[in-house]
Every structure is written in C-alpha cells, then in structure tokens.
Amino acid sequence: MRFIRPMVYSVMAIVIGTSVFLLTSKQATSQTDPVNQTHPTAYIETNEVSASFKVGGRVTEVLVKEGDVVKKGQVLARLQSTEIEAKVEQAKAAVALAQGKIAEAEGATATAEAKKQQGIAGVNVTAETAEQQVAQAQAAVSAAQAKVDGLRNGARPEEKKQAEIQFKAASEVYTIAEQI
Question: How far apart are CA 79 and CA 38, in angstroms?
C-alpha cells in the first residue's frame, strides 16, 4: 500500500507532462482546422431547415436559393414585423420629443439672457438717474448757499438801486390808480 500512491502520482505526472508536450509542440493537428481543409468535408441535403429569428414576423423576402453556399452570419431572409416597426416609430417619437425639449431649453436660456441684459440696462439707467439727481441736489445746495451768503453780506449797491427803482415805479402806479 505504501508504494501504490507514489506510483499513481508518478503515472499521472507522466501523462500530464506528455499531453502538455504534444499540445505545445504542434505535432497533433486538428482535422477541422481551416488550414488543413481544401474542400468541404460533407454536404448536407435536406428538404426542411429549422431557422430561428430574434423576433417574430412574416417572411417577406428570401435572399438565397436552393443549392447556394451560405456562410455563418449571412442574411438568409427578411421579416416583416409590425412589432419592430412600432418600436422604430416609438424611437423616432422619443427623438422628436427630446429635440423639442432641447429647443424649449434653448428658448428658456435665450429668455433668461434677455432678462439679464434688461436688468443690467435697468441698473445702468438707475445709476445714471441717481447721478443726475445727486448733481441737481448739489446745484440746489450751491444756489441756497449763495443766497445765504448774499443775505449775510447784505444787499449790494446795484440791488439797492434796483429796489429803489421798483419802489418808485410801484408808487407811481399806485398814485395813478388812486386818481381813477
């Protein structure tokens, strides 16, 4: 019993090693390898073929004839499927809806930009108006200060003479009015 286990392990190691050697040395070749094949190995003749499609529908066009050579992945027939057409229409509607939402968002952006520009213009107009009001107030203050200064300094000789002339003219008008 002591010698059976090591013997089994040794045989297994030799089999595995030989297999690895044969596979890596390419001495064993496949019979289905396309390089080794020059002609098809078999012809299949049948009256019926079982074909499957990803979706159901009615066959509208057969693209191959009996006896034609076909390859893997080649289109053999076309289907008319109302389900697929409905999904295409649904996808088109979803694209149109998305484009409408994009246009709506662009319109909202343009409106917001216009309102922003109006706000900036309004602030500029308000600032200019405020500056004009400040200038007018400063002019009124200067005029009032000049009047106060004139009252403090007293009347100038020209103003006194003008006041005397106005007094004489008013007196004459009064005397004439009394006579009538």
Answer: 35
